[in-house]
Amino acid sequence: ETIPGLAGSSVKLSTGRKRAGSDARPPAPEGATMPGVLKELSALHTALSRQDLPSALHEQAFHQLMYLLAATSLNSLLLRKD
Question: Where is this region: Disordered (predicted)?
Fold first, then answer.
């Protein structure tokens, strides 16, 4: 998202490279719901469990994901107009 009133805010930064065909699911609608987030977290947990990764890596992945969700949520709240 761009920040209004900031110089150079018309340039939108890319959030990363996408590989062709890496995600077969359709893109989620703009507003995420709690059941949707929980469903995605459950799918991630299932995928990590199937890979037989150590529990320390499971924990690290979820800690980083929770940090990202919290930072994004805070940023969205700070950029709200109301």
Answer: 1-33
Residue 26 tokens read as 């359709």
- Amino acid of residue 37: V
Q: Phi and psi of 73, rounded to 5°?
A: -65, -45
Q: What is the pLDDT of residues 29-68, one digit of tens each?
A: 566 788 888 898 899 889 888 988 888 988 999 899 989 9
* CA-to-CA separations, 30 to 26, 27, 36, 50, in angstroms, rounded: 12, 9, 12, 30
Distance CA 19, CA 31 (A): 24
Phi, psi of 77 (to 5 degrees): -65, -40
